[in-house]
Design a protein that fits this description.
Order of helices and strands: EHEHEEE
Number of helices: 2
Structural class: alpha+beta
CATH architecture: Roll
Number of domains: 1
Protein name: MoaD/ThiS family protein
Number of strands: 5
Strand content: 25-35%
Helix content: 10-25%
Shape: globular
CATH superfamily: Beta-grasp domain
Length: 78
Amino acid sequence: MILLKYFGNIAEKTKSNEEEIPYLDISLKQLIDELEQKYNLDKQSFSVAINQKIVQNIQNQKLKDNDIVALLPPFAGG
């Protein structure tokens, strides 16, 4: 299983804080593309973390069973 966690405006858009999906041998990019299509996120700005580490390049990142993927809205500093 892959646990998806949604925060901020992404959680509002998905109407959920998290969901589990079956593990599939796909890349992070493929997963993000599917989520953008499913929830119409293409205009949303967000960062992606896997197991609490921000991913800089989602293109070549592979997912593993039991990964936790978080979609994080932009952070404001102060």
